[in-house]
Amino acid sequence: MSRRSKAREVVVQMLYQVDLNPDVATPTVFGMIDEQIGDEKTANFAKQLFGGVLKFRDMLDEKITAVAENWSLSRMAATDRNVLRLGAFELLQTETPHPVVLNEAIELARKFGNDQSPQFVNGILDRLVPAEKRTKTRPASGTPRPAGPGPAPAAP
Predict the structure, then answer these.
(1) What band does 133 get if pLDDT is binned at 50, 70 and 90?
(2) Where does the chain show beta strands of DSSP type E?
(3) In whole angstroms, what is the distance from residue 139 CA to residue 21 CA?
(4) How far apart are CA 51 and CA 54, in angstroms?
C-alpha cells in the first residue's frame, strides 16, 4: 500500500470516529494520525486531508446530497458517507487527478463498506468530478494514449 493510500485509509477512520463522536477534538485526532502513520510527511498529508474535509464538510455534504438520488446522508452507512466526504474533498478542493480519487475511494469503500459500497461510492463521486478535471486527464480525440508511464509531467 502506498503512503498516500495509507494516509487516506487513516483519514477515513478518523472521519468515521468524528462522525460518530463529534466531541473528539482535532488535536486528539492529529495525535491518533501520528500514532497510526509514524512517517511525518505522510501524517502531514493525512492531516491536510482531514482538516480540509472538516473545513468544507457542510459544502461537501450539500454536493453529495445533490447527486445522491434518493439518498440522504443520514441513510448512508457511516463508512460510505465518510469515504464520500474524503473523495468529494479531493475532487473539489485539490489537484489530485480524478481517476486517482475515484480509484482510492473505491478501494476504501471495498475495505470498509459492504458489497455494494464500491459501486455506490463510484456512482456518486463520478457525478461530482468537475468538468475541468475530466478534460485535463482525457487525451484529445484521436490522440493515442501513452503506452507506458512515460516521463513525469513538468511541475506547474
Answers:
(1) confident
(2) none
(3) 44
(4) 5
> What pLDDT digit, counting tens, does each position of 44-101 carry?
999 999 999 999 999 999 999 999 988 999 999 999 999 999 999 999 999 999 999 9
Amino acid code (one letter) for 10: V
- Cα–Cα distances (Å) from 54 to 12, 46, 57, 111, 151, in that order, read 12, 12, 5, 22, 35
Under the banding of pLDDT at 50, 70 and 90, the label for residue 111 is very high
Report how far residue 125's alpha carbon sits from residue 102's, in angstroms, rounded to the nearest whole number: 7
CA distance 60 to 68: 12
Q: What are the distances in angstroms from CA 1 to CA 81, 92, 108, 156?
A: 23, 24, 12, 27
What number of residues does the chain have?
A: 156
Say what the pLDDT of residue 137 is.
53
Report whether CATH 1.10.940.10 matches the domain 3-130.
yes
* Inter-residue contact 91 to 128 (CB < 8 Å): yes
Q: How far apart are CA 60 and CA 86, in angstroms?
A: 9
